[in-house]
Amino acid sequence: MFKNVWAKFGRLDLLIANAGSVDGGSSYNFRRRGVDVNDVPPEPNTSCTDAHFKGVMYGTVLATHFMRHNSPAPGGKIIATTSMLGLHPCPTFPEYGSAEAGMVHWVRVNAPLLQSKENITINTVMMGPAITPVMPGFGKAFLPEE
């Protein structure tokens, strides 16, 4: 995608890194309570971490690569959409919240260096709860007025 944008416009000014997914499993799975000690849990599902955290990480690396070549002046803007659960732990979604916290920290760590060395600003927009078809019943669990 980045190569196609560069081929068409000869520059990259903005990346909005956004992903929408939830945990594929949970590190604390209530369905596994009471199982035999020999019934070892499967390897954790990391699809949420891959999409959210690794997606922002690699997207930042790719955007920086192309933004360095912007002419006449190198630089650009990166916005990572994340969730308030990146700052406020939610035991219902431990993998999701951890991935979001990773994104927030990634942005905080990279912002000063990208600004000073590359003329690239990177920030997060932290979303609150949103009612979507991805999570049926989410509004009733977290928004009692719904």
TL;DR of this structure?
By secondary structure, the protein is α/β, with parallel strands linked by helices.
Looking at this protein, list some descriptive labels.
146 residues; alpha/beta; Rossmann fold; three-stranded parallel β-sheet
Report on the architecture of this protein:
By secondary structure, the protein is α/β, with parallel strands linked by helices. The protein has one domain (2-23, 43-128): 3-Layer(aba) Sandwich (Rossmann fold). Helices cover 40% and strands 14% of the residues. Strand 2 (76-83), helix 3 and strand 3 (120-127) form a beta-alpha-beta unit. Helix 2 runs parallel beside helix 3 (94-118). The mean pLDDT is 87.
Lay out the secondary structure.
Layout: H1 2-9, E1 14-17, H2 47-67, E2 76-83, H3 94-118, E3 120-127, H4 138-142
Parallel strand pairs: 1-2, 2-3
Helix pairs in contact: 2-3
Structural class of the helix and strand makeup?
A: alpha/beta
Mean pLDDT over the full residue set: 87
> Main sheet, how many strands, which sense, barrel?
3 strands, parallel
What is the strand tally? 3
How many domains, in number, for the residues?
1
Helix proportion of residues, in percent?
A: 40-55%
Count of alpha/pi helices? 4
